[in-house]
Amino acid sequence: MSIAERWQRFEKLPADVRQNLEKLVPLFEKKGVLLAYLFGSLSRHQPGNDVDIAILTRAESVFRLRAAISDILGTERVDLVDLRNAPPILRFEILCSGQLLYAVDEATQEQFELASLHLYRDTSPLRRQQEVSLRERIASWLSEKKASNSA
User: Fold this and answer.
1) Which residues contact 139 (CB under 8 A, 6 or more apart)?
2) Most exposed of 18, 28, 51, 135 (fewest Cβ within 10 Å)?
3) What does the DSSP assignment read for 59-107?
């Protein structure tokens, strides 16, 4: 299912959705959010289909915040990412291209960002090996397909 298909049944993003992002801060403070980042098309000031927010909490499930976030932003088109469980490459992309919406304090932000960068760097050899293996499997599959078409 494409992104466009996913959001078909929901109304388009409201024009003031970017302005409403700052209204999330009291919710984040009340619910024990440690960090929140806007990422995706809205963070790049491009038109988008949804609002992508990555959240790190103390204990509460990130996804329990979805209804309240949707109410504040005035849209159901909200995608949440739990930073505690996000893969290293997604964390890295969010930190590189995202926009900080909220931090409980600077030390928490620095600690999380540094840990995420270390994790991304430490898993780099695994990603390279995975890419090599994938390329080898694709090449093998293509050569088998070519051989079967020739026969």
Assistant:
1) none
2) 135
3) SS-GGGGHHHHHHHHT-S-EEEEETTT--HHHHHHHHHH-EEEEES-HH
Q: What is the DSSP letter of 11?
A: P
| pLDDT, position 7 | 56
Instruction: Provide the total of helices (H) and of strands (E) in the chain, helices listed first.
Output: 7, 4
Distance CA 115, CA 10 (A): 37
What token pair was written down for 123?
């898993």
What contacts 75, CB < 8 A, 6 or more positions away?
A: 10, 11, 13, 14, 17, 50, 51
Residue among 22, 78, 28, 80 nearest 54 (CA)? 80
146 pLDDT above the threshold of 80: no
| The model's pTM | 0.78
Top-confidence residue, 140 or 21: 21
